[in-house]
Write a structure and sequence with these properties.
- It is a single chain.
- This protein has 316 residues and is an all-alpha fold.
- It has 13 helices and two strands; from the N terminus they run αββαααααααααααα.
- The chain has a two-stranded antiparallel ribbon with strand order 1-2.
- The protein is flat.
- The two termini are 51 Å apart.
- The relative contact order is 0.12.
C-alpha cells in the first residue's frame, strides 16, 4: 500500500514563501550588523596597508623627507649589496639571535619544569619570573642594566669581592657589550615560560606512569615523553623568539646612545635602519632596508616551518 502524496495548499505555499523571505531578511540584517562591527578592523587595515605599500614605493626612490621622492630604480638595492656596515649589522643581529634565542628558550623551559613540580606559592613565582618579560626591554631597565654592568657597577663590585679585578665597563668594551645584551634578553624569558608551563600541565600523567613502569629514568621521561608532547609549543615559542630578536632595537639604542658602539658591536640591523631613516634622513634607503628585514624574517620563518616536520610531534 503506497502512502498518499500530500500536495500543499496555496495558503501553505504562501506561508513558506513568507517564512523564507523573513529568514532571508533576518540573515541580511545579521550580515550588515557583522559588517558594522568589522568597520574598525577595516579602518585599522588601512593604516597598515597604506604605509606598507608607501614604504615599498619609497624603497625605489631617493627621499630625504624634505623634498618629494624621486624614483631611482634599483639604486638602493645595489647600495645594500655593497654596504659593509649593513652587512656588519646583519651579522650582529644574527649572532644575537642564534645565541640568545636558544638560551632564553632553555631557561624558560627549565624554570617551567621546576614550577610544574607542584611547589607552593606557584602564582607568586610565576608572576616574579613573568615580570621581566614585561619591563625587560623598556628604556628604564636597559639604563639600569647599563649602570649594573658599568665600570663602577654592581658586577665589578661582586667580582672584586671574589678577588677578580675588572675595572672596565662591560658595556664599554666591544668584546663584552653584545654579551651583556644577550644576557638581558635571556633574562626576559617569562612569556615563553608561562606558555611552557601551560603545555606541561596538559601532558597526561598516565604517560609518565607507563614510562616509570618500564623503568625509564626522569631524564628519559623528559626526553621521550615531555619534549615530544610539548614540541608544538616549543616550535611556537621559537617562531616568536626569532621574529622578536631579529627586530631588536631598544637595547642597542639605549646602551650605545644610538651609535651602535663601541666599535659597532651593538649595531643591530634595526638600529642601523633607524640611523639611515631618522639621522641621515635617507628614507628611501631605510625603506629598502625595512623590506630586506621583512624578507629575512620570512626566510627564517619558512625554514623553521619546513624543518618542523623532523622534530615537532602532532598527535593527529
Amino acid at each position: 500500500m503506497t502512502a498518499p502524496v500530500l500536495t500543499p495548499t496555496p495558503r501553505q505555499r504562501s506561508g513558506r514563501v513568507r517564512a523564507g523571505t523573513q529568514s532571508s531578511s533576518r540573515r541580511r540584517r545579521q550580515d550588515w550588523s557583522g559588517y558594522v562591527f568589522l568597520l574598525p578592523w577595516f579602518g585599522g587595515m588601512l593604516f597598515t596597508i597604506v604605509p606598507f605599500l608607501w614604504s615599498l614605493y619609497l624603497a625605489f626612490t631617493d627621499y630625504n623627507l624634505l623634498n618629494p621622492p624621486e624614483f631611482s630604480g634599483l639604486t638602493n638595492i645595489k647600495r645594500m649589496i655593497t654596504d659593509t656596515t649593513l652587512h656588519h649589522s646583519l651579522g650582529v643581529t644574527f649572532l644575537y639571535t642564534f645565541i640568545s634565542v636558544p638560551l632564553s628558550l632553555i631557561a624558560a623551559l627549565g624554570v617551567a619544569v621546576l614550577l610544574n613540580k607542584g611547589m607552593s606559592g606557584l602564582k607568586i613565582y610565576r608572576s616574579v619570573f613573568y615580570l621581566p618579560s614585561l619591563i625587560g626591554s623598556s628604556v628604564a631597565v636597559v639604563m639600569l642594566w647599563r649602570a649594573i654592568f658599568g665600570a663602577d657597577g654592581i658586577v665589578n663590585d661582586l667580582l672584586a669581592t671574589l678577588g677578580i679585578q675588572h675595572t672596565q665597563s662591560w658595556i664599554g668594551s666591544p668584546d663584552t657589550a653584545l654579551g651583556v645584551l644577550i644576557t638581558l634578553n635571556v633574562w626576559t624569558f617569562g612569556a615563553p615560560m608561562v606558555i611552557f608551563l601551560a603545555a606541561l600541565r596538559q601532558v597526561p600523567a598516565a604517560y609518565y606512569e607507563a614510562a616509570a613502569l618500564d623503568g625509564a629514568s626522569r631524564w628519559r621521561q623528559f626526553r621521550s615523553v615531555t619534549l615530544p608532547l610539548i614540541s608544538p609549543v616549543i616550535f611556537f615559542n621559537l617562531i616568536l623568539a626569532v621574529i622578536g630578536s631579529m627586530q631588536t632595537f631598544t637595547q642597542g639604542y639605549v646602551v650605545s646612545n644610538g651609535t651602535g658602539g663601541p666599535s659597532n658591536s651593538t649595531l643591530f640591523y634595526n638600529l642601523y635602519l633607524y640611523q639611515q631613516g631618522f639621522t641621515s634622513f635617507d628614507m628611501g634607503y631605510a625603506s629598502a632596508m625595512a623590506w630586506l628585514l621583512l624578507l629575512v624574517i620570512a626566510a627564517f620563518t619558512a625554514i623553521n616551518f619546513i624543518g618542523q616536520k623532523y622534530w615537532v610531534y602532532y598527535e593527529n
